[in-house]
Amino acid sequence: METVTATATHINPDRVILEATDVVRQYTQSDEIITAVNRANMKVFEGEFIAIVGASGSGKSTLLHLLAGLDRPQAGTITVRGQNITAMSADELGRFRGNYLGMVFQNHNLIPQFTALENILIPTLMCNKENASYEEMFKKLVSSLGIADRLHHLPSELSGGQQQRVAIARALINMPHILFADEPTGNLDRTNADEVLELLLETKNMIGQTLIMVTHDMSIANRADRIYHMEDGKLELCNKRSARD
Amino acid sequence: MPTKSRTKRFCEWLTTLFRSIGSVLYPPNVKNSFRSVTTNWKEYICFYLAALVMTTGFWTVALCTEANMHKAKKTVADEYDYHIEVALLDNEQYANLDQQLLYQIKRENEYIESYYWVNNGEPLLDGTYSCRIVLDPTYGLETAFIEVRSDVLNRVSVGHRELRVSPLYTFDEDFGTPYTVQLWVVSLVWMAFSIFMMLVLFLVRLDHFKFIYGVYMACGADFPKLMGAAGGELLVITLLTWVPSALLGIGIAAILYIPVGVGLWFSVPTVLIPLLGGIISVFASVWFPMRRMSKKPPVLHLQAGDNTNLVSSPRRSFYLFGEDFPGKYELYGFWRMRKYYLRLILSAILFAAFFISGLYIADMESYHNNLDPYEYQIAYRPANYYEEVVPEVDENGNEEIIGDEPWAPTFGQAETIRYDVDLFLKELEAVPGVSHAEWDVSLSGGYALSHLLLKPGQLYDASDYKVSSSERASEGFKWAVNNYAYTAVDQLWIDNLIQHDLATFEGDPYAVLSTENGVIISEDVYNDRVYKFKPGDQIIVAICEEGGPTPMVMNPQQLLREQIKLFKFRYETYTICAVVHGLNSASNITFGVGYANYTELTERPPVRTELKIYMNKGTDMDTVRAAEGELRRVVNSFSDWLVTPTGNYFETSIKSQKNDRAVILTLAICLLTISPMVWYFSQIMFYRKRRNEFAVLHALGAPDNAFAKMHRLAGGVLSGIAFLVTIPIALLCNYLVYFTVNTLLPWLHLTESIRYEFRLSLPALIACVLVSVLCGFLSCELPYRLFTKPDIGVRRVD
User: Fold this and answer.
1) In angstroms, what separates the C-alpha of B291 from chain A's closest C-alpha?
2) CA-CA distance, B96 to B116, in Å (whole number)?
3) In chain B, what are the domains?
4) Is B209 an 8 Å CB contact of chain A?
5) Would an 8 Å CB–CB cutoff place A30 in contact with chain B?
6) Residue A41 lies in a domain
7) Are residues B211 and A111, on separate chains, in Cβ contact within 8 Å?
8) What ipTM did this prediction achieve?
9) Residue A153's domain is classified under what CATH number?
10) Are B577 and B535 in contact (CB under 8 A)?
């Protein structure tokens, strides 16, 4: 099994790390078919910070779930690190997620009966990497996220901001190559939101990560390398900070 | 996408299987699972109980079968102190054999341990001598037997004699192997139930913990990891309950066997079966739901944080304006979650129905073990029998007739046979211990190349047998069948069935003796009704006048079609005098006719060449053995009649000593205990997730007593449905058991055809209905007292 050793020095900014081609996701509700993602195309380079913005219900979260391999598109392909994840079996995709992808959910999705520490360590149970690399990362995350004194608390005993930090720590503990974040600052006040963003960017730079974030907050989106806009399931590139596209 | 080859898919499956096993048994995983199931033991209490029930079942099956075998061995050893018996020896043979045996014993022949003469060497009632030999088992009984036969018996002067082996010699074959087979078969059946019970409980858990597994999957868990997480916990629980269940199993077996003087025995399978059975059951019960779950996108499971995944119709809203609260509110909720409730009710009640079916099976087993098969066969064996029928003799000296052509005496012999039987039948039945004699003079319609023509109304469920026929279709006889056997009927035959309660008749059976072309007919094939006759009905018999060759490999229907096409028939109309019910039936129905008709239809004399002698229930083995000499004495006055013991009576007496009924009852009770577990576990999980809903309602102004009403209303509705559903499900399960045992297994030739009555135990049904109704109600009341009521209190204080 490949171990994650990516650091900032290994980034190749010209290498495409994720590519989505004509991705379609539809839902059937009663007799009505709702197209949540309509032929979305996207190319992400290694080490980039991508922001996806759009109104509520425009399909941003659905797209993020598809890109993170948490859901399957009806049509189109998604290639991550040169591998077509839409053609992978459920088990292959599961292992791939564990090794290369991390996800911060909008509503945290912490397991209520587990303590913060246990929640953070869940991914380490799923991927058989060496403990040493986890421990080092764990110490860094806990200190930089400021949750060292809350590790033995249940999620219900933590504030919204603290829960979000625990969720971020859980997403980063495996040092994923790509981190997907679904409105990670949506439930936080400005100070907390800024802190979380700084932390994500710092980690991104530290381990040479690619960051794809869904957000409503334009002040956060404006710090991204590129911004995609989503409307009625259609994805459009609306800002090019780099000349790649 | 290119499709994978079968081999590749199989290899992948094997890899997944081994990775899953590895993941479950991975020491850190076992350690985590142990911590999880011991610290949160309340969460897993249901699985602890289920594992206890499951493993106790395995222990009970293993220990009781072992005890049965040892008990049988003891009984056999008590009754038979020899391995082989050389019987029917005359004076010369007696002297010869005695000399040979003495010589062998003197030279310390390693195959013979000892021998003795029955009746202390005095002649028996029929004037013959019998010698019993005890073999030395050092080199195996079979080798000893072969050696003794070639070394000793072949040196004894020729002449008629009989060599018999005792149940002590055939113990392994007659009892040992069947007990081993029974042990594995019953263990496998119990494993199937165990998988089902763990599966039902695990599905309940999975329904309510989908979110957690969704998080695991989002964090990179593949199927083996999920198996490791879920399977590891259940495996640890099974191992933790292994010792307590062993104690329980030993306790149950001790209660069942020690009072009847049988000790408990522990062999390797006895200890391994509960361990392996439990592990395999747990693994299989987790495998299937987890496999299904792992194939779905994790985002679906992440959405199941509350009960929304149980909602059946989320898009059809109810207009709640001014509706009754909490009554209508709760009923609407009931409808919204109907699939959940239906699944809950069905799975919980199924276990109650299994209990009722278990009682039914226990009754069947008891009935079967107490059936009296015939003990002696008295057969007419003249010289021409041995010329026409060439029996193969196995190494035990048993005759086996090869081929299916039935032997028939000549018409000349028939007169003598009839005369003989009329003379000795009463005397045979008067022998001490003998209950009655039975006989069967029959020939299948198919063998006689004839068939019956029936009207559509006379067929009940005969699609597997009927062939359309145009022969007498204009008179309404549109169907031809040949699954029947001509049976010669006389007054004695009818008397015998009536006196011994072997059958009942609709119509006047004796009319067949006086009516021209009258018939007594049955309707069942493999104890399942196939035809629909009533007295007074007419049937046409097509009798072959000119036959010819037909292809050999054909099913009976194709064969009949060919016969109708190629052969010439004449037709005789028969009138049904009586319909006989309750006879054990195999592949043919009975077509009973008087002697003259039988001869006309089969061209054979209607004589009893074989009699089956039944013993009275409860006769001791000494009387049974003594009866043989008496029977021989009776028939020895008539030439060419042979008495052969079958050993069935002893075999049945051992079977009836088995405590199978109690074992089946124990397993049935074990299954019944799962029913409340399903009710409570599922509902506690369900209501725990409803706490947020209740908190919102409370915040919106719902009074405290409304919550009690909601729970009790739900409990009432569940009880009502449980009451209505338990009876049909129990009936259905019992019918499936009845059909399987009565019809399916004999049809598959897996068991002999024995007719059982369809029954539903009323006390058991009442008990199950009560359990279901009570559990239905309490499964709503208990969560109210556990979660909702204390929560309301806390909120009020706050």
Assistant:
1) 10
2) 14
3) 18-80+173-305 (no CATH), 81-166 (3.30.70.1380), 307-371+657-798 (no CATH), 374-436+607-645 (3.30.70), 442-604 (no CATH)
4) no
5) yes
6) no
7) yes
8) 0.82
9) 3.40.50.300
10) yes
